Amino acid sequence: MIQNQKENETLLHDLNGELTMVMDVFYRLEKGIMKGTLTTENAKDAILEMLNNGKKRVLGISEFMKEAISPKVDFEDIARMHVKNHGGIEIKITNISNSKYLMKRIHINRILNNIISNAVEAQATVLKIAINKDSIVFMDDGEGFSKGVASSINSGKQITTRDNGHGIGTISVKKLARSYKLEMTCCNGLNGANIAFNKTA
Ligand SMILES: Nc1ncnc2c1ncn2[C@@H]1O[C@H](COP(=O)(O)OP(=O)(O)OP(=O)(O)O)[C@@H](O)[C@H]1O
Ligand SMILES: [Mg+2]
Known about the structure:
elongated, single chain, 7 strands, two-stranded antiparallel sheet, 51% helix
């Protein structure tokens, strides 16, 4: 329940950010008209561009809301879509037991985007995703976790080894996974980083 509330708060926060952008477009339009800088024929293009920006944003928000309230879909189906989208890394999915993990599409994308971008940043060329009866395991062939990083993440601590990193990605994925009764654990495998999501119930 608390998790749901947190998720709603995050969604509201995202939505608020998007709406602020739309309001900014209208605000700038209004200001231009008031000041008289947007009344000449020359300003037509500028006005049209601003209106178009606003329109795109509103469409974006409606897509975003559709996603947010969408029914749950199967993890594997969405993961297979990512296989085509990522040119830099080869993604191999196995699901021998034909296991299903139903989640919201935005959540699956959040998990995959974080894990894939981290693997790419660790110079991995292959990312294997093993979907099992009781777990989903990601294995890459990159540099692996630096000393102390995996244990920090496992204990829920935010950590980054990158200049421009935030260290938010994996921790937010760990929290999100819990709302689906999956516990995320990181470790180094034979070839690189392993990230496992084990069923807890
Ligand atoms: N696949 C991986 N291989 C090696 N190290 C990894 C891998 N995934 C995560 N890490 C390590 O874990 C740290 C935390 O990852 P996380 O995604 O939370 O943050 P980040 O990538 O540094 O920044 P951002 O929040 O912008 O994604 C990374 O800085 C990196 O050191
Ligand atoms: Mg990251």
